[in-house]
Every structure is written in C-alpha cells, then in structure tokens.
Amino acid sequence: KMSEREQFVLGVTAGLAVTLGAYYAYTGGARKRALERAACARPAVADADRQQPVKARRKSVAGALASEAGDAVASAWRTAKETVLESLKAKHPEGFGSELILLTTVAVEDVFLLPVPHLSDYHAGADLPNRMGIGLSGTKAEHMQAYNKLMGDQDVIIHDIVRKAGADPVTTAYLRAGPRTVIHFEPNKVRAAIVTCGGLCPGLNNIIQGLVRTLISLYGVEKVYGVRGGYGGFAEAPIELTLERVVGLQNKGGTMIGSGRGSFDLAKTIGFLKQHRISQLYVVGGDGTHRAANKIADEARRLKLNIAVCGVPKTIDNDIDLLDRSFGFSTAVEEAQAAILSAQTEARCNLPNGIGIVKLMGRHSGFIAVHATMCSGEVDLCLVPEVPVVTEGPLGILPHLERVLERKGHAVIVVAEGAGEEIFGTSAVLDAGGNRKLPELGLWLKDQIVAYMQARGKVATVKYVDPSYMIRSVPANASDSIYCELLAQNVVHGAMAGYTAFSVGMRNNRLVYIPINAMVKKSPRQMDAHGQTWERVLSITRQPNTVPPKEAKAPQAPAPPP
Question: Which tens digit of pLDDT belongs to each residue from 120-161?
C-alpha cells in the first residue's frame, strides 16, 4: 500500500508524463523525456556522466506509470494542482487580473550550478555568525543587527531565463550574491588589499569607496590597503585606505590608487600578501586581469594560504562574458552623446556635404558604438568589429554615404576602435597589456570619403572626433554609481563568507558570484551580429547589412534509446 507522499509523487509524475506524451504524439516527436526523480534530492552527477547528453541519461517510466494509473493517481494529481494554486495565491493574493494558462511544453527539470571555490576546502575558518554593523561601534552586541535577508548555498539565479517550447529542460545557474549566515574570517583580524588594473573606466573610485566602507563600517576589519599602479604595485609599499580618505571619492574620475597594464609577477604578489598578512585581495580589472587573479588564487590554494582572491569585472567595452553589463558602460554611452552631437553639428554646418566621424571604444566588440548609435538617433553609419566593412558595391558604405548626403546634406559616422581588421589585417604589435595595436579605420575612412566624392566631382568636408580619453576619465553617472556600490558590497560579502577565485556581477538583473575560470573562458565576448541589437541599429542608420547569412545548423542525430 502506497503512502500519501508516494501517491502525491506518483500523481505529479503521472500527470506530467500524460501531458508530455500527448504533446510529443501530436508533434510526431520521437524522443522520450526522462522523469527520473527522487523523493527529496537528485544524486550528484559524476564528471564522466556530464559529458553525455542529459536526455541519453534519462530513463522512461511510462510503463511504471501505466501500471499505477487509477483513482489514486487522479486524486494525487488534483492535490498537486491545488497545492500549486494555493502557493500562487499566497504570493499574489490579489491575482493577476487574467486567467493563468499552464504551458506543458516549457519546463526546467535539471539545473547545474557553477560552483564557487571555498577556502574551507583546504583551510579551517572561524565560522562565526554574520551580524550587520560589526564595524559601526566596535564589537558591542547592542549595535549589531540581523540582516534582512541571508543567502544560502542553494540560492541561485538561472542562466537561461528565456525558454522555448520543446527545448531541452536543462540550464545552468549561478550562486546568488549576498551576505551569508556564517562568515569564514574573524573581521577584526582581516587585512584587505585593493588593486585596480588596466585602462581607466568611470566608477573605479566608486568601487574603491564601496569596498572600504563595507570592509570597515560593516565588518570592522583591521586594515585596508591600496596597491599603487596595478599589478606592478605589489613590488612597492601600499597606502592605507581609511573612511576619511574615501570621502567624496565617488565624485572624482579615475582611480585614487592608480592603475597600470601588465607587470604581473606571481612570486612578488604572493610575497606581498604574506608580508602584509593579507587575507582578502580585491582585484578590479578586465578579463586579462582576472586571469592573473585566478593564478594568484591557484597559488594560494597550493600553498594552503587562507586568502580570498575576489574580482570586480571592469571593462568600459562591456565585453566580459556571462554578465548583463559591466560598470562604467552606462556612463560611457551617455558621455558619447556629447561627441556625437558635436560631430553632427560640425557636419550640419559645414556645407556642402559635411560629414562627422566619431571614434568610440570597442577593441573586440561594438557595444558602446551600437548603444550610443541607438541612443543618439542621429547616426547614419555605425561600424563595429563584429560586422565586415565593405566600401564599394551594392553593400558599400561609400555609396550609402553618398545617398545620405543627397537626402539630408550631411552625415554622422560612429566607428568602434576595433572595426576594420578585415581591411587592414591583424596587427602583430602588442601593448604592455598584451593587446594588439588597432588600425585607425576612422582616419583611413576620412581619406576614402574625400577621394570617393572627388572622383564624382563633389566636395566633402570631413571632421574627425576622438573623445576616448574624455569618456574614460569622467565620474560615474547615477546608474553606474548605484551599480558600483552593489558590486562592492556583495564582493565583500562573498569574501567574508570564504569564497575565493570568483568575481561578482549582474546576471538577469541579479547580483551573482561567478567562478573566474568560467567568466574568462570565452571573454572577451562580442555582439551577436545576427541578433536584435544589430537589427535595431540598421533600422536607425538605414545602412546596408554586410553580415554574412547565418549558417543553418546541421540536424542532430536522435539520441540512442535508453
């Protein structure tokens, strides 16, 4: 005789099986979905099993369900439905004002977490209860309070929130950022170090200020150091950062501790951390900076050092993978508007056939260029690294500009700094940070436009605007300032909890912890030239689309039967 719990599980499973079976019978689908579920939790999946398709690992239970169908199943299914409806009513007592429709073809069954390394894997922690306000007034209990919300090890954010009918019900997830119930470190014994690397970006000072405030005011750490001039600063004496030193810092551009490219030395870095008894290292930088940070975390693990190595992603180009956006990007797009407006004014006033060219950042990706184009509404041609540059012919940009000039008398062009490599080829010259020297497409295009118009007996006046350093060095706007504060607070929460080799960022509008090795694996990312963003740009500029047609995916062979 089955217990009530077994009847409930069996009823839910039977209902799902019947619904899915009817769907696949109707569509002619040949594959069978697995519904192998345990009463409480699924067993862990071995690494070897992860390499096999999830569908191939599932077993059909249709036969078992058919034999158990009956009144007990129907009753359990009704109970399950009522339970779900009661849960919805509890969360939304006033309802939604419309009928809810169950989508039987959209499901998420298996969620795989990207695990974040923890110091307790190789070093014992203090394991203290986490209370808010430790640093406000010493360690007096009456000045501490409980957090409104504490995160657990299974509080996650789903990676793929967009689901399609019939898609494989499998996704990955990230650990949600925030304060934990237990902290790994004794706060009053913590010494933290902050280093900013790479080029300038709006919001760097906001990050520094947020880190210092959270470490001192919220947790009451012993000391916070600033490493001067990027990774090269680990060979020098640091400066101490206090609450007084960061007052008003959010209103200043740049970074108060300086930045730098390259100069990474693992041995000197580890030596610095040991000498100054650093237990938390906060690294602010791009994908190259994070790769170096991962090496520091690996070496600390090898030496069994109780040091949390944490990252805050910084790239004004917005090209770090897995993130919604990086801090400073919103400010960069906003500041670019002044340059575009200046170029538009020059083009409109220099008759006849005035043209303004604006060069914007975007070494590997054109996110700033395309978003600035969409924001402005005055741009007639947008050139980015992801889209081939064609000068002549039906899809040529020069004939397009000629048509624009005939229609409105002037034109505005936005060029991402990394566009045009298919014309100039890939440079073998590298800078101190290991980045390739980029071609000057904007200046080359200026000469091409003048020559093209002269060949047709026309005159063109072309103005070239490069606001790159002006955009990098400004203070963060309101949106980025708030974002920086969230990043700073949450990366400290993660470090205090004992997580290491991770970076903090926004995914699906929620703050998450991402393992550094996962974040940098495919960085820098690029804009999808076959996506909606580029379509929106084309609708504004009306330029020819030079993106090659998307290759059709080869049909996959059906999974072997279980």
Answer: 999 999 999 998 875 554 445 666 778 889 999 999 999 988
pLDDT digits (tens, 9 = 90+) for 451-504: 999 999 999 999 999 998 889 999 999 999 999 999 999 999 999 999 999 999
CA separation for the pair 2, 23 (Å, rounded): 29
First-to-last C-alpha distance (Å) of the chain: 30
Q: How far apart are CA 494 and CA 219, in angstroms?
A: 12
Residue 328 Cα distances to 114, 207, 211, 475, 484, angstroms? 26, 11, 17, 9, 9
Contact 534, 377 (CB under 8 A): no
DSSP state of 475: P
Let me know: does 537 contact 370? Beta carbons within 8 Å: yes
Greatest pairwise CA separation for the chain in angstroms: 94
> pLDDT of 60-99, one tens digit each?
444 444 455 556 666 766 776 677 777 777 877 777 777 7
Cα distance between residue 316 and residue 302, in whole Å: 33
Strand partners, 314: 327
Q: Is 494 exposed, middle or buried (0-12, 13-18, 19+ CB in 10 A)?
A: buried
Neighbour-count burial of 418, counting CB atoms closer than 10 A to its CB (0-12 exposed, 13-18 middle, 19+ buried) = buried
Place of tokens 């002044």: 338
**CB distance 221 to 240 below 8 Å:** no
Residue type, 464: Y
Please check whether residue 275 is in contact with residue 246, taking contact to mean a CB–CB distance below 8 angstroms.
no
Closest-CA residue to 32 (of 170, 168, 172, 171):
168
Calpha distance 344→238 (Å, rounded): 46
* CA 110 to the chain's CA centroid: 22
**Pairing assessment for the beta strands 502-507 and 308-313 based on DSSP bridges:** parallel
What residue spans of 377-531 are helical by DSSP H? 397-408, 421-424, 441-455, 468-472, 478-497, 516-520
Main-chain phi, psi angles of 409, to 5 degrees: 90, -15
Q: Angle at which helices 329-349 and 367-376 pack, to 10 degrees?
A: 60
Which among 546, 559, 226, 530 has a CA at the least distance from the CA of 400?
A: 546
Whole-angstrom distance, CA of residue 479 vs CA of residue 324 = 14
- Provide the annotated active-site residues: 317
Tokens describing residue 458: 């026309």
Place of tokens 């084309």: 538
- Taking the mean position of all CA atoms in its chain, how far away is CA 392? 37
- Nearest 5°: CA angle at 239, between 234 and 243? 135
Is there a contact between 366 and 316 (Cβ–Cβ < 8 Å)? Answer: no
35, 38, 107, 110 from 52: Cα distances, Å = 17, 21, 20, 14
- In tens, the pLDDT along 490-510 reads 999 999 999 999 999 999 999
pLDDT score recorded for residue 104: 80
Q: Which of 160, 162, 159, 163 is nearest to 173 (CA)?
A: 159
